[in-house]
Design brief:
The chain is mostly helical. The chain is built from five helices and no strands. Helix 2 runs parallel beside helix 4.
């Protein structure tokens, strides 16, 4: 019983690390900052992240092709008004862009 429990835990950890992706994590941050609900920033391409990508790209008149890559991430950064990597302080960019709209 103990061995089976360890196997299940090890399998779950391995599955999580395989499914977690740095590009997906950055895209989730960008999407959430843009106001699209990508769900938790966990690097896992789930239904909320896919829906948020669909919505963001459709709003900009494009599509992302269902395989997230660096060019899709660059597109999201362009929507944010910054090509710099996101470090979790994206909301500051939104505030400045919002303020510029009323200047």
């Amino acid at each position: 019983m103990f061995r089976i429990g360890l196997f299940v835990i090890a399998s779950l950890i391995a599955a999580t690390s395989v499914n977690a992706d740095a590009i997906t994590t950055k895209a989730q941050r960008a999407l959430n900052a843009l106001g699209y609900n990508a769900g938790p920033v966990d690097g896992v391409m789930g239904a909320k992240t896919r829906r948020a990508l669909d919505q963001a790209f459709a709003a900009a008149g494009g599509s992302w092709g269902q395989e997230l890559d660096a060019s899709d991430l660059a597109f999201l950064y362009d929507l944010l008004g910054s090509a710099a990597p996101l470090i979790g302080e994206v909301s500051v960019v939104r505030v400045f862009r919002h303020a510029e709209a009323f200047s």
